[in-house]
């Protein structure tokens, strides 16, 4: 397993729509392992392949945050939202590609998602709470959308300027 570098916004690769995974093979499984390792190391609760510069429809997530609770690492390949509740919820979201920036985003409170697991089997689950927010946030990445795209232009520009400055600072070190 390898911890991979996470792209920082603005990066054109974060705005690309990811390609579907045709076959779950050893390469896809290795990528999924690296993504989980990278996500936990960051630390984060979700990660999408495009954040590593890989335009494949793969996300990882684990929203178990309680101290001492059993982790629940999930790998979702080609995830699709098949149902969304009319009820909405608002969470303060952040993103590993937009470090230390947070904003409230409103999304459906519950979603049902269908995906393929690392064994190539079709799975389906209904998510609510933080899991619902996380899976929607990560699927957005697969469609080239970031959480700041839900914000007003002023707030989005302010965050983007901070990220440009952060990238400049990191390039100097």
Spans of 5+ residues with little confidence (pLDDT < 50)? none
**What is the multimeric organization of the chains shown?**
single chain
Spatial separation of the terminal alpha carbons: 26 Å
Q: Do you know the CATH topology? A: Peptide Deformylase
Please give the count of helices.
3
Overall average pLDDT: 96
Q: What string gives the helices and strands in order?
A: HEEEEEEEHH
Q: Trace the largest sheet across and list its strands.
A: 1-2-3-6-7
Q: What is the radius of gyration computed over CA atoms, rounded to a whole number of angstroms?
A: 16 Å
Beta strands, count: 7
Based on secondary structure, the structural category is: alpha+beta
Major sheet attributes: 5 strands, antiparallel
CATH class: Alpha Beta
CATH superfamily membership, which one? Peptide deformylase
SS strand fraction = 25-35%
Label the CATH architecture.
Answer: Alpha-Beta Complex
Give the overall silhouette. Answer: globular
Number of domains: 1
Helical amount = 25-40%
């Amino acid at each position: 397993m390898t911890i991979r570098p996470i792209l920082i916004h603005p990066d054109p690769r974060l705005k690309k729509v990811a390609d579907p995974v045709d076959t779950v093979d050893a390469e896809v499984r290795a990528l999924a392992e690296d993504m989980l390792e990278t996500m936990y190391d960051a630390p984060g609760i979700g990660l999408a392949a495009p954040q590593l510069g890989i335009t494949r429809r793969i996300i990882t997530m684990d929203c178990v945050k309680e101290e001492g609770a059993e982790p629940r690492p999930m790998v979702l390949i080609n995830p699709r939202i098949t149902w969304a509740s009319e009820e909405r919820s608002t969470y303060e979201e952040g993103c590993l590609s937009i470090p230390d920036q947070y904003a409230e985003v409103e999304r459906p409170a519950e979603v049902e998602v269908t995906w393929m697991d690392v064994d190539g089997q079709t799975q389906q689950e209904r998510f609510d709470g933080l899991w619902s927010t996380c899976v929607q946030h990560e699927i957005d990445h697969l469609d080239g959308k970031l959480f700041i795209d839900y914000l007003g232009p002023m707030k989005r520009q302010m965050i983007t300027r901070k990220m440009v400055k952060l990238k400049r600072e990191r390039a100097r070190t």
